[in-house]
Design goal:
By secondary structure, the chain is mainly alpha-helical. The protein has 2 domains: 102 residues, no CATH class; 44 residues, no CATH class. The protein has 7 helices and no strands. It is globular and about 45 Å long.
Length: 146
């Protein structure tokens, strides 16, 4: 069995309205079961940003995922019940803007575009969410469609 590429975008939110939460649930779930593609890290970058912005300790989040293996709806229910969680409209807005506003450094952008056969000519949206989507799709294509 091939390792699974987490194809949910960081630009996706579930019913709580928190961008990247569905992806971090998927990545943590795959990692906890040894099924995540080796090109993917868990618990850093947007993953840690998301749990930090929600006021959730990463170890608590990952421990819950690993021990309970929840559905996404169960994950959101756990997040809502987490002591001191930050889920006000303002908290969600600030977090979502941090996700959407992050720009990769020049080397990362060039590496992703090069791997996808795209020129680094300014024609591609420079946001990390869009570049990460391209990266996911490229890795998927290399693994599953060749």
């Amino acid at each position: 069995m091939s390792q699974i590429i987490p194809m949910i975008s960081s630009g996706t939110a579930g019913p709580l309205g928190v961008l990247h939460l569905p992806r971090v649930w998927l990545k943590a779930s795959l990692h906890a079961t040894g099924k995540i593609h080796p090109d993917y890290t868990v618990g850093c970058g947007y993953d840690k940003l998301t749990t930090d912005n929600l006021g959730i300790a990463w170890d608590d989040f990952y421990g819950f995922i690993k021990e309970q293996r929840p559905t996404y709806a169960q994950c959101e229910a756990w997040v809502k019940a987490y002591p001191g969680v930050k889920l006000s409209a303002a908290d969600r807005y600030r977090h979502n803007q941090a996700i959407l506003g992050y720009i990769h450094d020049d080397d990362t952008r060039k590496e992703i575009l090069n791997a996808c056969g795209r020129a680094d000519d300014g024609s591609c949206n420079p946001g990390a969410v869009d570049l990460n989507n391209l990266d996911d799709w490229q890795i998927f294509h290399q693994q599953e469609l060749k």
